[in-house]
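Friendly challenge for the regulars: who can give me the structure tokens for this chain first? No prize, just bragging rights.
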Amino acid sequence: MKLNALFVITGILGLFFGLLTLLIPGGFYAFYGGELADTGKNAAQLQGAAYLGYAFLLFLACKAADAKARKAVVVGMLIHSIVAVIVSLKWQLAGTINAWGWSTVAIFGLFVLGYGYFLIKGTD
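First reply, four minutes later:
Bragging rights claimed.
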């Protein structure tokens, strides 16, 4: 797989989940068995805004010629993915979300592998 393909896949998922959490935060979390009060909906919308920002950053990074800039994006996405695996695994093991939560653990786990690979291999 090429780094640009990973950027695009991550960007598409970021766009999809960003729009869902921004536009219908309560419905999105209800799918996972969660319930959000007003403050939780606000926080979920901020999460959606962050995912949209990541998506556009990744789409723009596809055209970046500078290896240092691409590596910075890889490092940032790797850190985000590692933390996301830890947090989503914690929620899953605590039973605060339903079985669909394993998909979140898996998606971010794959991103850890992908971005870790490109950090080691290089971004050229």
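The longest helix spans residues 67-94. The mean pLDDT is 95. Your move, everyone else.
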